[in-house]
Write a structure and sequence with these properties.
Layout: H1 14-26, H2 28-35, H3 37-66, H4 70-77, H5 83-111, E1 125-126, E2 131-132, H6 134-137, H7 141-150, H8 165-183, H9 190-212, H10 217-225, H11 235-249, H12 255-260, H13 269-310, H14 326-336, H15 349-354, H16 361-371, H17 377-410, H18 412-415, H19 418-433, H20 441-452, H21 454-485, H22 492-519, E3 522-527, E4 532-537, H23 540-554, H24 556-577, E5 589-591, H25 594-602, E6 625-627
Antiparallel strand pairs: 1-2, 3-4, 5-6
Helix pairs in contact: 1-13, 1-17, 2-3, 2-13, 3-11, 3-13, 3-21, 3-22, 4-5, 5-8, 5-17, 5-19, 5-20, 5-21, 5-24, 7-16, 8-17, 8-19, 9-13, 9-17, 10-13, 11-22, 13-16, 20-23, 21-22, 21-23
Length: 642
């Protein structure tokens, strides 16, 4: 999908932004459906404006000005904070491990879509008894296909089971696609870029138009926009909304910094931040609308089947289900519920809307069930999973770029062996990803998604904001941005970075830790006997694994700080023994004359106008600062922070 991009090429962020964040934006629909979309989306917009956009702008500006990946950016701001970049790489690797498993699931479902009828359209027959398989009859054909045919899942995380050979093959294919694309670089050809950016929107609009023609679509839209303002009093809803802002914009992963480091120095990154955030939100609204239209049709179909069962009872005036509306049936049920057996329910549309909208259930259970009801269902199923595959690979490419770019920027030997590094990273990802292809693998996917990426990600962004706002200095950072943009961003960013964003993220981190400590980590397991999902607590060894993953991702920050301090102390001691007084060569900002700087730039051959090496900082600031050459390997770095 991608053609070769050399190290010196600078693809503009505009050519990548639609694809890089489109898949993350669509994931908001699950939380919106679970909490009542209207109120949740208002909360999401509020947090997007006061936290998401400022932090997104900060990462774009840092990468574009310093011309490095995540490791180089934070090392440049302060050598004491170089560990932030390594933590970002580890979090990216965590996400890549389990995210590619979801791509493997999409490949499996897309491969099974080329048959009619779809294999999840009806329950299979037990050849021994010639009856419907009990597990499928007690649940649904889509749930049975997902949990038994696709995952062949165990009853808990403690029952590991053997490897799933089909999913292992799909995971190998997914990593092979990623490796081949990343070997060629991140710059796509124009036709492929336009296709991969526009195709998901085309599919979403097709599903929206088709969905609006279905019975129950209006009920789904009403449910979407009905605001449940009481959820604002739930601290966990705020935590989930803030976490979704982080994931939707890709904050803390390093991929934003990696992409922006290839931008031209004077690219308008402020415009990019506003535009990407707006596109992300509008995409979320469109995807949410499609989801609720489809879920409304699904809920109406189930409710009509439910009340058709009830209308067969003799105390209902009519035995024709089409005559009795769902509202009339529910009114009758409220009056006679005490006389009915457990098989007769109130056929609530809202309860049906809430089913199958969390986690992987949205794509692989709820949507597959609806597509099985469509005419020409294989076509719709193939189209849907092709869109998921496109979105998943786009996000995966950005995640891998957040790993490879910082490593190649800071380890020149790796930069000379890009292909070897890429293939080795993908091979390691596949080997470690085998954890997710065993029969209990879905439970480990949930573990990584809920705990191993979220908490370390928040910790990384807290340190990023602290380093810019309090170590480097917001005024100094705004001066650098003013040089790039030729105008100074509003001063409101200074206070957002220093106080609002930082306090919001510390609160998010505290809420996540308190929930983890007092409520205890849990996961949803599929019980084969009961043919239903149930909530279980993680065993002791799984809790230890969660804690180990969090510590592993967060530890580079304190380790990097201690390492920098020890190097500084050793350097001071060595200079003291030599008599001291010698000037240390390091990255240092010194006053210079702008005319002298301009003359020196004009004498530099071979450089294009407006282009600067990736390893250089801004050539001149508003206070006329110039960066002297860095000699890291020979002498010691010192903190350049204010």
């Amino acid at each position: 999908m991608f053609k070769v991009m050399t190290k010196n090429e600078k693809p503009p962020l505009d050519s990548l932004e639609d694809r890089a964040w489109l898949g993350e934006g669509c994931s908001q629909t699950q939380l919106a459906a679970a909490h009542g979309s209207g109120a949740f989306m208002l909360l999401y917009v509020f947090l997007l404006l006061i936290v998401g956009v400022p932090l997104f702008f900060m990462e774009l500006a840092a990468g574009q000005s310093i011309r490095q990946g995540s490791i180089g950016v934070w090392k440049h701001i302060s050598p004491n904070l170089a560990g932030i970049g390594y933590s970002s790489c580890i979090v990216c690797f965590y996400v890549a491990l389990y995210y590619n498993v979801i791509i493997a699931w999409s490949l499996f479902y897309m491969g099974n879509s080329f048959q009619y009828p779809l294999p999840w359209e009806r329950c299979p027959t037990d050849v021994a008894t010639n009856d419907t398989v009990k597990e499928c009859a007690s649940s649904s054909p889509t749930s049975y296909f997902w949990f038994r045919k696709a995952l062949d899942i165990t009853n808990s995380i403690q029952e590991s089971g053997e490897f799933n050979p089909v999913m292992t093959g799909c995971l190998l294919a997914a990593w092979a696609i990623v490796a081949l694309a990343m070997i060629k670089g991140i710059k796509s050809s124009a036709k492929v870029m336009y296709f991969s950016s526009v195709f998901p929107y085309v599919v979403l609009f097709i599903f929206l138009i088709r969905g609006l023609m279905l019975d129950g679509a209006i009920e789904g839209i009403k449910y979407m926009f009905y605001p449940k303002l009481e959820i604002w009093g739930n601290l966990q809803v705020w935590r989930q909304a803030a976490t979704q802002v982080f994931f939707a914009l890709g904050l803390g992963y390093g991929s934003v910094i990696a992409y922006s480091s290839y931008n031209p120095v004077h690219n308008n990154c402020h415009r990019d931040a506003l535009m990407v955030s707006c596109i992300n939100f509008m995409t979320s609204v469109l995807a949410t609308l499609v989801v609720f239209v489809v879920l409304g049709f699904r809920a109406k179909t189930i409710a009509l089947g439910c009340h058709a069962l009830g209308t067969g009872w003799p105390w209902i005036n009519s035995t024709d289900p089409s005559v009795v509306s769902v509202a009339e049936y529910r009114q009758w049920y409220a009056q006679h519920s005490s006389d009915l057996g457990p098989t007769i329910t109130d056929c609530s549309l809202e309860e049906e809307m809430n089913k199958g909208v969390e986690g992987t259930g949205l794509a692989f259970i709820a949507f597959t069930e609806v597509m099985a009801l469509f005419p020409a269902s294989p076509f719709w199923s193939t189209l849907f999973f092709l869109m998921l595959l496109n979105l998943g690979l786009s996000t995966m490419f950005g995640t891998m770029q957040g790993i490879l770019t910082p490593l190649m920027d800071n380890f020149k030997l790796l930069a000379h062996y890009r292909t070897v590094l890429t293939v080795s990273s993908c091979l390691l990802g596949f080997i470690l990803g085998l954890l997710f292809t065993q029969r209990s693998g879905n439970y480990f996917v949930a573990m990584f998604d809920d705990y191993s990426a979220t908490l370390p990600l928040v910790i990384v962004v807290v340190f990023e904001t602290t380093s810019v706002a309090w170590v480097y200095g917001t005024d100094r950072f705004l001066d650098d941005i003013e040089v790039m943009l030729k105008w100074r961003p509003p001063v409101v960013y200074k206070y957002l970075w220093k106080y609002v964003c930082l306090l919001a993220m510390v609160g998010l981190l505290a809420a996540s830790l308190l929930r983890m400590v007092f409520k205890g980590p849990t996961y949803t397991a599929w019980n084969q006997t009961a043919a239903s999902e149930m909530t279980l607590e993680y065993p002791g060894w799984a809790l230890a694994m969660i804690i180990m993953l969090i510590i592993l991702a967060s530890s580079p920050v304190p380790i990097g700080y201690l390492h920098a301090k020890l190097r500084q102390r050793g350097s001071l001691d060595s200079h003291g023994e030599q008599g001291g007084g010698q000037e240390m060569h390091r990255e240092l900002y010194t006053k210079c004359n702008s005319t002298e700087l301009l003359d020196s730039r004009q004498q530099t051959p071979g450089e294009e106008e407006g282009a600067y090496p990736r390893t250089a900082f801004l050539p001149i600031g508003s206070e006329q600062y110039r960066l002297l050459p860095q000699q890291e390997e020979e002498e010691e770095e010192e903190d350049t922070g204010v």
